[in-house]
């Protein structure tokens, strides 16, 4: 069963979105309040790419493998990776978590899948020394010191850090890259192999100057190795699952792999 590209479904309040053997029911809002409360094309393309290659990012030291998504939106990509037997931390700003993300994760249980999926609020503009990993509601801003956690919480090390359709303003570049950098160093420090996780950023090149600045700062300021996933790999992943999509619908979507230099 196929789905439509996201820009053709903004008017639909509840999406039925197939992924592998699952079909996710995803509520979205198109009220102009937040970019994060509707489905975007990058999330669709990244989920299809992950279906092809997710085993490449697994660590032999951690089972199930563990990932964190920055800017999960309505939850498609987080649910997709979780359905592939990953532990996933789905994160976004409180307004997005409370309006769509939390309910979408809760309403799409995957009982026969290994691993777990958790939701946290995460504001990238909060400095890393103010993050919290022992609360099941928020990473940043950290909850009050007397707040209690409802159970075991997922934290570093992460095998994969991923984000789609989250850079649409220059003001977001530095917070996003700082967050990816710190998550990478935390993960390497907590890993038995000191292995740096892979960072995947899926970007729709609407503003070439913005994208070029993001990639340049990732390399020059934050010391990431930056490599574009070959377009043929993305094309193969999409066309395998969406035979009716015209390439013009998603030709501006790019996936970039970042890995922090040691």
UniProtKB/TrEMBL annotation:
Lineage: Eukaryota, Fungi, Dikarya, Basidiomycota, Agaricomycotina
One cellular-component annotation, GO: nucleus
InterPro entries hit by this protein: Methyltransf_16, SAM-dependent_MTases_sf
Name this polypeptide is given: Methyltransferase-domain-containing protein
A molecular function GO annotation: S-adenosylmethionine-dependent methyltransferase activity
Origin superkingdom: Eukaryota
């Amino acid at each position: 069963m196929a789905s439509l590209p996201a820009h053709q479904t903004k008017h639909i309040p509840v999406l039925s979105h197939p992924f592998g053997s699952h079909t996710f029911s995803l509520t979205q809002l198109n009220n102009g309040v937040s970019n994060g409360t509707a489905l975007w094309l990058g999330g669709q393309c990244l989920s299809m790419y992950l279906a092809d290659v997710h085993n490449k990012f697994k660590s032999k030291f951690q089972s199930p493998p563990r990932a964190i998504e920055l800017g999960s939106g309505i939850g498609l990509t987080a649910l997709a990776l979780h359905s592939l037997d990953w532990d996933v931390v789905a994160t976004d700003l409180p307004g997005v978590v409370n309006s769509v993300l939390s309910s979408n994760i809760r309403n799409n249980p995957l009982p026969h899948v290994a691993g777990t999926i958790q939701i946290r609020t995460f504001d990238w503009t909060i400095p890393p020394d103010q993050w919290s990993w022992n609360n099941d509601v928020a990473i940043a801003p950290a909850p009050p010191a007397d707040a209690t956690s409802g159970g075991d919480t997922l934290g570093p090390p992460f095998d994969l850090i991923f984000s789609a359709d989250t850079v649409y303003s220059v003001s977001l570049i530095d917070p996003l890259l700082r967050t990816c950098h710190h998550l990478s160093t935390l993960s390497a420090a907590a890993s038995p192999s000191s292995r740096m996780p892979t960072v995947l950023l899926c970007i729709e090149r609407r503003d070439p100057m913005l994208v070029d600045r993001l990639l340049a700062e990732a390399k020059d300021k934050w010391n990431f190795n930056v490599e574009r996933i070959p377009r043929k790999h993305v094309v193969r992943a999409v066309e395998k699952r969406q035979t009716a999509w015209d390439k013009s619908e998603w030709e501006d979507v790019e996936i970039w792999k970042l890995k922090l230099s040691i």
